[in-house]
């Protein structure tokens, strides 16, 4: 044992644990490598791991998309108190922090940072409640949308049918596996795709690339080298046979017409019976 006393009174600079001093050499200031590194960062003015963690959580909370925000006005409280009745709040709609000074007035605080945010919230909630009510009347309401509603959250509306649907996230806004959903169902997604196709192809409906051959019925790829879906037969053999058949059919028809022309006109209507002379 020795009785050396270092500049930190034999206590760690960071965590205040007792630090044993060596007999020789530089007196120790910290208890461990971790604490030494923490001291270094502190003296340099760099944020520590804990602060980074908190910063990340705050950023995540503020950058939540509009549909994942909770519009809970009952427990709307300041995130930071600057002083006597000088509080910092976070906007319910956009998450931006704003300062409210209520030194004299005792009115309740507006939970939005600006008129714009307030208007936007009102617009989307009106639209959502309309769609919610309609879906409820029809019995098409998703229970997850209802759950979100009781949790003071909006749900996105399907751009195809207007029904509110639950996005691919959990109740706290964390994304689930898979890509974000835009439509309420695969049926709506496909319908929207058909619509987009029609608008970009002069109103023509989408044709299937694979279709049965007009002669043998075998399924084949109907797309030609230019990307047009125009082919009718699976191979040139089928096409030749078909054209030959059409040719003979045409000839037979022509022969019949000719025959009909040469013979007497066909008796279409029965002749009126002659009146019987008396
Ligand atoms: Zn320490
Ligand atoms: Zn705002
Ligand atoms: Zn839909
Ligand atoms: Zn064929």
């Amino acid at each position: 044992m020795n009785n050396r006393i270092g500049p930190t009174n034999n206590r760690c600079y960071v965590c205040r644990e007792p630090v044993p001093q060596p007999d020789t050499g530089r007196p120790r200031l910290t208890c461990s490598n971790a604490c030494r590194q923490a001291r270094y960062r502190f003296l340099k003015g760099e944020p520590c791991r804990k602060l980074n963690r908190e910063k990340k959580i705050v950023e995540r909370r503020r950058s939540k998309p509009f549909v994942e925000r909770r519009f809970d006005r009952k427990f709307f409280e300041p995130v930071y108190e600057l002083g006597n009745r000088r509080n910092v709040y976070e906007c319910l709609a956009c998450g931006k922090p704003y300062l409210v000074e209520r030194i004299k007035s005792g009115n309740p605080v507006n939970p939005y940072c600006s008129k714009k945010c307030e208007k936007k919230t009102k617009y989307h909630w009106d639209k959502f409640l309309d769609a919610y009510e309609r879906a409820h009347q029809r019995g098409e309401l998703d229970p997850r949308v209802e759950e979100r509603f009781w949790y003071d959250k909006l749900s996105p509306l399907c751009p195809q049918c207007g029904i509110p649907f639950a996005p691919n996230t959990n109740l706290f806004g964390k994304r689930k596996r898979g890509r974000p959903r835009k439509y309420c169902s695969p049926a709506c997604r496909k319908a929207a795709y058909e619509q987009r196709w029609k608008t970009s192809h002069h109103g023509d409906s989408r044709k299937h690339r694979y279709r049965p051959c007009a002669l043998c019925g075998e399924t084949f790829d109907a797309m030609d080298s230019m990307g047009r879906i125009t082919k009718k037969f699976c191979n040139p053999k089928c096409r030749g046979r078909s054209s030959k058949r059409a040719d003979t059919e045409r000839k037979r028809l022509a022969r019949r017409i000719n025959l009909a022309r040469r013979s007497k006109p066909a008796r279409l209507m029965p002749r009126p019976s002659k009146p019987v002379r008396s």
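The beta strands are 80-83, 86-90, 97-101, 210-212, 219-221. The radius of gyration is 40 Å.
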